[in-house]
Amino acid sequence: DYLNGKMIFTRDNATGTITNNSTLSAQEKGFIALLSPTVVNNGVIRATMGSVSLAGGDKIELSLDSTGLKTIIVEPSTIKTLIDNKALVEANGGMIYMGAKEAQALLDGAMNIKNSGSLQANSMNDLLGIITLDGHGIEVSGTVQALGGEVYVGNKNVEKTLVTQSAILSGDFVETSGKSLKVEDGVTIAA
Q: CB burial class (10 A; 0-12, 13-18, 19+) of residue 80?
């Protein structure tokens, strides 16, 4: 559908991996989307006042308007997924989305959304920074920071959310949730 001018991406039996080991930068108010069953960021991704989406599923739909990316819809994958940030994703004045969904039959308790690096979407110029982590298993051991903005780690549909002792979550609003939620001793949460 992308080739027909639509922002709809289907997996079509692809099983590949996207690994970023360098620096990716969008123009101001632009967006970067790395969409694959497996996405690993070992580098730097920046989209000032824009958005960054790292996502995996059988079908992913991005909705855009004149201000940039508005929504992302991820349909569950029929194969295993992993979205893993080990370095820096920055979208100050914008949005960061890390998400992957798997069909119910694939759920095995494994974490498929991991952040051991740094996610930063601080509010700026009256633009709200928002960070969302959504998958069937989420593990945060790094920094998730949206100063003046909002942080969402999990939701009521997430099977398991783990926030380890080395994690730092900060924003004007911080939500951590899941059907099974574990926040280890030593975590820093500032809201």
A: middle
Give the three-class secondary structure for 106: helix
CA 160-81-159 angle, to 5 degrees, is 15
Phi-psi region of 53 (alpha: psi -120 to 50; beta: other; left: phi over 0): beta
Strands 160-163 and 180-183 turn out to be parallel
Q: What is the structure's pLDDT at 11?
A: 87
Q: How would DSSP label each residue in 19-60? A: EE-SEEEPPTT-EEEEESSEEEE-SEEE-TTSEEEEEESSEE
Q: What is the DSSP letter of 94?
A: S
Residue with tokens 């997430």: 158
pTM of the model: 0.93
Torsions phi, psi for 31 (to 5 deg): -145, 155
And the tokens for 149?
């903005």
Residues 68, 60: Cα–Cα separation, whole Å: 16
CB neighbour list of residue 121: distance below 8 Å, 6 or more residues apart: 90, 91, 92, 93, 94, 95, 96, 129, 130, 131, 145, 146, 149
User: Over the stretch 68-85, which tens digit does the pLDDT of each residue have?
Assistant: 777 888 988 888 899 999
